[in-house]
Design the sequence.
């Protein structure tokens, strides 16, 4: 389960003897730390599978394929104790590295070159969707964690944003992550078909379509699919990266607020910004200097995709598919949130682009 994987990783090396003591090998003198190799090896195989499927079905990103591969493994065969240390490693530490490296794909000067109109559309659509969605979720009777993760995934950058928010806060569980990930896949995939059709029906120009897709569609891979098919790939991806850069401040501020609110109940001071979020911002700054060699910037997206797929496979092994199919209200919230960000960004495009 995701909860079990995260808990195991959170204890680090000192927790390993305790993990072993829970299993059948708990005998006097058996203090050897369980190996992470089996779980990492299975995650590596899952990444290879995800990359192969992505070549056949480009609209599905390797990360999304990996999530559902993990869920399928858990549902069909289960996740044994031998795999848990390795899955804990990829779902926590590898995830942090992947999110940090995501920053190397974003050059602030390129984003600023979009102009204040496009940046305003991105900021307003993202901010309103992230703020309003949890409140609607509460009215629908959804948990705080599900509402927060759906808001994060829809408003920022899909599965990566969901994973980052889940890693930085403690208000979500297995079912919350499963619901949010399913929503991102469902509505993001539908957008690949619907956004170009609606743009043609409304008579949007190619430039307007690029801004709308980048400002409204969930996953980078989904935006790329729309952009490539419509001839607006570069513009759409740049707009999307303008949303991705909001990942750091939104996750950091949310984490700080939640832990600050919890401090009076649990004591202690709220922690600083999560280290991997700070690393993400550092990578954005490094890329924005223009001093990163082209060979590095060309390779970073592929490396990030591989690491993110491995991490999300680990998270996917904690998804209970039986509970997922019962998430009707989560699907409704995802549809509402998608409608909000699509409507606000479309209005902005019509007025400003």
Sequence:
């Amino acid at each position: 389960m995701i909860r079990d994987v995260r808990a195991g990783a959170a204890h680090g090396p000192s927790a390993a003897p305790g993990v072993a003591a829970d299993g059948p090998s708990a005998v006097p003198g058996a203090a050897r730390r369980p190996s992470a190799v089996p779980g990492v090896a299975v995650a590596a195989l899952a990444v290879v599978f995800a990359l192969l499927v992505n070549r056949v079905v480009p609209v599905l990103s390797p990360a999304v394929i990996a999530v559902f591969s993990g869920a399928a493994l858990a549902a069909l065969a289960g996740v044994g104790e031998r795999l848990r240390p390795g899955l804990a490693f990829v779902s926590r530490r590898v995830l942090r590295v992947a999110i940090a490296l995501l920053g190397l794909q974003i050059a602030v000067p390129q984003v600023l070159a979009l102009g204040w109109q496009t940046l305003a559309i991105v900021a307003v659509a993202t901010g309103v969707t992230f703020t309003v969605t949890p409140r609607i979720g509460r009215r629908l009777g959804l948990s705080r964690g599900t509402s927060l993760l759906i808001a994060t995934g829809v408003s920022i950058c899909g599965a990566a944003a969901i994973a980052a928010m889940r890693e930085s806060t403690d208000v979500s569980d297995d079912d919350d992550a499963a619901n949010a990930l399913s929503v991102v896949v469902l509505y993001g995939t539908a957008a690949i078909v619907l956004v170009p059709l609606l743009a043609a029906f409304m008579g949007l120009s190619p430039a307007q379509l690029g801004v709308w897709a980048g400002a409204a569609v969930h996953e980078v891979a989904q935006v790329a699919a729309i952009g490539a098919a419509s001839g607006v790939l570069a513009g759409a991806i740049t707009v999307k990266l303008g949303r991705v850069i909001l990942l750091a401040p939104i996750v950091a501020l949310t984490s700080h607020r939640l832990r600050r609110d919890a401090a009076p109940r649990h004591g202690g001071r709220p922690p600083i910004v999560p280290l991997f979020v700070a690393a993400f911002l550092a990578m954005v700054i490094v890329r924005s200097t223009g001093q990163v060699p082209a060979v590095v910037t060309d390779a970073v997206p592929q490396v990030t995709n591989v690491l993110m797929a491995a991490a999300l496979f680990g998270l996917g092994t904690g998804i209970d598919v039986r509970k997922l199919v019962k998430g009707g209200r989560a699907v409704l919230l995802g549809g509402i949130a998608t409608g909000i960000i699509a409507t606000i960004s479309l209005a902005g495009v019509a007025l400003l682009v």
